[in-house]
Amino acid sequence: MQSISLTITDRDRQIAGLTTLAISLHLLEATFPSLLPGVKPGIANIVVLFVLYRYGFATAASVSLLRVLAGSLLFGQLLTPTFFLSMTGALTSLVALWLASRLPASYFSAVSLSILAAMAHITGQLLMVRLWLIPVPQTFLLLPPLLMASIVFGLANGLIVAYLLNGRDARG
Amino acid sequence: MRTWLSKLRPLLWGDWLVLLLSLGITGWLWSDWGNYAHATKCQIRQGTHIIGTYDLMQDRHITVKGTMGQSVIHIHQGKVRFEHAPCHNQYCVQQGWLRRAGQVVLCLPNQVSIVLLGESGFDSLSY
Amino acid sequence: MYRWLCLLGLISLCGGCQPDSTHSEAYVFGTLVDVQIDDLSEAKAQQASQAVFARYQQLHQQLHAWQAGELQQLNTAITQGNSSIPVSHTLADLLQHAQQLSVQSGGLFNPAIGQLIALWGFHREQFSPVQFAPQQLQRLQAQRPAMTDLTITKDVVASRNRSVKMDLGGYAKGYALDEGMAILKAHGVKNALINIGGNVMALGQHHGRAWRVGIQHPRQPGAMAALDLPSGWAIGTSGDYQRYYMKDGMRYCHIIDPRTGMPVQTTQAVTVLIAPQGHAGVLSDVASKPMFIAPEQASALASTMGVFGWLMVDQTGKISLNPPMQQRLTWLHPETARHAHLVE
């Protein structure tokens, strides 16, 4: 008999803690009243961005995807359209983050990354809605107001991350 | 308060660039899309006769027999065009895809017309 | 998910709204005629529009520029040098009015140049490049056919010039607008819109608001602007994009400059807005032609022709318009509005 032993490192604990934090923020946000349908501040992304700066892209990606998975499990939405919508948003914003993290850090802070990720998030989701959920061309009429909201929230989240990092923002 | 603010560094040069660019793109999309009234249906006529009113959200070819021959109209995912026409000048085919409410393509020689329906903002067109 | 659906629902709600007025269409005068009637039962509205179409069919035959009819008989008689040609009262009235408008426009509106229009290949159902010897054009130009060559009394027409060939293509559609409105009123119609190949005239209102008409963009599919057309007002557009052919990369449109004998190549489109008056329909058809031919005199021509508002697109796509037009219209795309210049 072979036994499998899993070693849980401190880093694993940290990531687990941060993922838990992201999920909590995600759940917290769900209780907020939404001003406009489809518009949410996405405060869980603060954690993802923070992790990107502290632990690198791979860790940030795991936190982000785990957050979507666990969040939809908790809400009982696994494999529902909402789940796929969240997943699409998470994936497109990760792609944007991966690309944006190559920008020189001396010119582009967490604020830039946050805005770009937020815009990619909503654009990806809308594309998903257009292609699969509600395949009518009118869908794209929603893009400008949603992009505007994503810029505002992306800016706010980015400023919070910049504040949390407090200068220690060398990207991992 | 002061310590809180001191932690919040001003935006970097590139951050401003990203912010302005994204606002610019959004504004541009807004001004362009704000007026973009998509048609939902189209009406195809031959002479005085209405061949039919069709939903634009489908993929379908419609062949209409006109005074000169057969015009082939293609409806595809929210847009419509003349694909083939027997007329000499092919103006109708050259118009390409139409998707906005209120647009009209006429094939005068073959007397076939397509009118895109939807809230276009006007009742008739001076052309 | 449901929020998305709600929002989209809101947006697409009005996508399907169609006014419940009665539309009737026909191909007359070589173009599409659309009669929209709002306030009668379907059957009565059909009856009224059928009466309009019947009259149009008559006019179409009577005034056809190159097929058998009264106008063709007149043209043949003029060519033969007949000095006393009997005509119907309708045609006599119409010719007199066209003559008056031609004089008003300084000869720029000239329906006597049918031979030129035929030479350029526009007396056909479909247009394609034509070949002719330059001398043919020179000879026609030397003969200077003009409306002032005609002497028109109540039922007799005489011409001093045998090269006069009447082509009422720039008049008949407008005349038909006025006639059509009179017929609709006689049928008790209070709210209607007639569109004859882009010349539009309004009667009453449309569901409690003014009728709204779009103005076609000369180089893009669809409208560039829209405006309210109150009861009795008429609007007409002359463009180089409906009847034309291309030859050696040049566009040859059906509007011929009587001064040079050449198709106009300086203008893409002219739209005129006409206030209610006796011949508002006729003016909406006629008044755009002189401005199309001589854009440099647009302002002066507009006032002599009795135009309320006008909008012009030149060959480079630059738009000019007068203040009354500016006040009334709404641009549909901010991009187009940027190309627009006010002309006092």
Describe the structure.
The complex is a heterotrimer of chains A (172), B (127) and C (344). With 172 residues, chain A is mostly helical. Chain A has six helices and no strands. Chain A is 70% helix and 0% strand. Chain B folds into two domains: 32 residues; 77 residues, Sandwich (mini-chromosome maintenance (MCM) complex, domain 2). Helices cover 24% and strands 36% of the residues of chain B. By secondary structure, chain C is of the alpha+beta class. Chain C is built from twelve helices and 19 strands. In chain C, the strands form five sheets. In chain C, strands 1-2-6-7-10-15-16-17-19 form a nine-stranded mixed beta sheet. Chain C has a three-stranded antiparallel beta sheet with strand order 3-5-4, covered by helices on one side. The longest helix of chain C has 21 residues. Chain C is globular, with a radius of gyration of 21 Å. Classes of the chains: A mainly alpha (172), B alpha+beta (127), C alpha+beta (344). Chains in contact: A-B, A-C, B-C. Chains B and C meet through β8 of B and β1, β2, β8 and β10 of C. β8 of chain B pairs parallel with β8 of chain C, so a sheet runs across the interface.
Any descriptors?
heterotrimer, A: 172 residues, mainly alpha, Arp2/3 complex 21 kDa subunit ARPC3, C: 344 residues, alpha+beta, T-fold, nine-stranded mixed sheet, three-stranded antiparallel sheet, 12 helices, 19 strands, 25% strand, ApbE (chain C)
Offer a concise description of the structure.
The complex is a heterotrimer of chains A (172), B (127) and C (344). Chain A is built from six helices and no strands. Chain A is mainly α and 172 residues long.
